[in-house]
Amino acid sequence: MPASYAYLGPEGTFTEVALRTLPEAATRELVPYVSVQSALDAVRTGEAEAAFVPIENSVEGGITTTLDELVAGEPLTIYREVLLSITFALLARPGTALSDVKTVTAHPAAQPQVRNWLRANLPDALWESAASNADGARLVQEGRYDAAFAGEFAAARYGLAPLERGIHDAENAQTRFVLVGRPARPAAPSGADKTSVVLWQRDDHPGGLRDLLGEFASRGINLMLLQSRPTGAGIGNYCFCVDAEGHISDRRMAEALMGLKRICLQVRFLGSYPRADVGVADLRPLFAGTSDEEFMAAADWVARCQDGRF
């Protein structure tokens, strides 16, 4: 049997479409799971080699279910990311008219991406959340709801018809997905990489977040995501999920992580992996004094000073 990849199912999700863009997906058995949690747990138990799940969208930011699993669950590592442009269709059973739609469903992350369309076209429709957009389509097929927001490609899979196509409140909306596996050595740097970490402060004090961010800023490292998540230890207790440009093997990134390890209560390394947006975004140039060569030259100078060879 081929090695398997778990993904947020059922069949017909945007997650499945994004997963199939990975070349290695053609050599794996792709197994749908009912939730992000169950897909990630399949990796933790060894049931699956890796899991593919959504982690961020360009409208609402981080997918909290995924972030919280990576923050608080048994450690996992991100190895790849995929960006997928998202547009929705309103799917219903054949013969349904738009005026017949009284209940709609989709994944909770879909609602912020269609709420204006829903307000303008179905202002009285009752929204109920589903485990995924494809699961919403399945529930419509079973008669539980009148219509579902999902990818148009899911219509044939669930015997539905699109009432409306091309639904999106924000132009060029994208969702970011990640391939997550058990902890192992990161892949070699590609030259356009991203490093993800979770940071816990030792205590709450003025300038505490500035201290954390300063470890990146002083080394010329650009941040691509900064999101706070509650730790569960009471109101006001947060950790910080960070995506930063660069690879852990880069001297400036390694030194930043060492600095964070010194000042943080806890640092969880989530991985260094190739960026998916290099085809559409220019990489930020290094600041003076932040290249690997300059870090190594500075370290060599300190070593010579320690040896009395100034």
State the distance separating the first and last CA atoms: 62 Å
Structural class: alpha/beta
- Strands, count: 15
Shape: elongated
Count the DSSP helices: 9
How much strand?
25-35%
What letter string, H or E per element, gives the SSE order?
EHEHEEHEEEHEHEHEEEHEEHEH
CA-atom Rg in angstroms: 22 Å
| Uncertain stretches | none
Mean pLDDT: 91
- Sheet with the most strands, sense and barrel status: 6 strands, mixed
Approximate helicity band:
25-40%
Q: Summary?
A:
The protein has 310 residues and is an alpha/beta fold. 28% of the residues lie in helices and 31% in strands. The strands form three sheets. Strands 1, 2, 3, 4, 5 and 11 form a six-stranded mixed sheet that branches. Strands 8-7-9-6-10 form a five-stranded mixed sheet.
